[in-house]
TrEMBL record:
Protein name (database record): Transposase
Native species: Mesorhizobium montanum
SUPFAM superfamilies: TrpR-like
InterPro entries per record: Transposase_8, Trp_repressor/repl_initiator
Pfam families recorded: HTH_Tnp_1
């Protein structure tokens, strides 16, 4: 085998092989020159992650090979998920505080049946006999329903109350409702 083939078999250039040969001849000592190579130029002993994990296991209790993983009890998971459900809380911040991935929190939310929040559906409610004959309990309930953020409540002439975007004219909303009712 010539110098070029030998260098190619070792993954070196011919120039690098000459340099190493000269160093070895000058020193006169027996040495493993491959250990002095840059890590990127060294031959890979094994690419199997399983072998490396078994070989370099640090503690005897890490028998299953997953010792670096943390485990959470059901109570801990529920507490973290409950923390993400609070209004105004950012899920990523909660996850950073607990040192978990956001995907894990969302997986736990799904596990506990808390999927993505859906927009509320609006329903048309009509008062049968008008506001004059309205029982006091119903009037109290009507005042409990607060307009959503960015909306205002507008009282219609027949006693109904509708929500419209903030800044909308009450007269324009009433005209719009009257036009819809004529069309139907």
């Amino acid at each position: 085998m010539g110098h070029a083939e030998y260098a190619a078999a070792l993954g070196l250039s011919r120039h690098a092989l000459r340099i190493w040969r000269d160093r070895l001849e000058e020193s006169g000592d027996e040495m493993d020159w491959r250990s002095l190579l840059h890590p990127s130029a060294r031959a890979q002993l094994s690419s199997a992650a399983n072998c490396a994990r078994r070989q370099y296991r640090l503690t005897p209790d890490a028998v299953d090979g997953r010792s670096h993983r943390r485990s959470f009890t059901e109570e801990q998971k529920r507490a973290i998920v409950a923390e993400t459900e609070r209004p105004g809380v950012v899920v990523a911040q909660v996850c950073r505080r607990h040192g978990i991935a956001t995907s894990m929190a969302f997986r736990w939310r799904q596990e506990f049946g808390l999927t993505a929040r859906k927009a509320p559906e609006l329903a048309l409610v009509e008062i049968a006999d008008g506001a004059e004959s309205e029982p006091p309990a119903l009037a109290a309930l009507r005042n409990l329903v607060r307009p959503p953020d960015g909306m205002v409540a507008i009282e219609v002439d027949d006693g109904r109350r509708v929500f419209a975007p903030a800044g909308a004219s009450a007269a324009a909303v009433k005209r719009h409702l009257a036009g819809k009712e004529k069309a139907s």
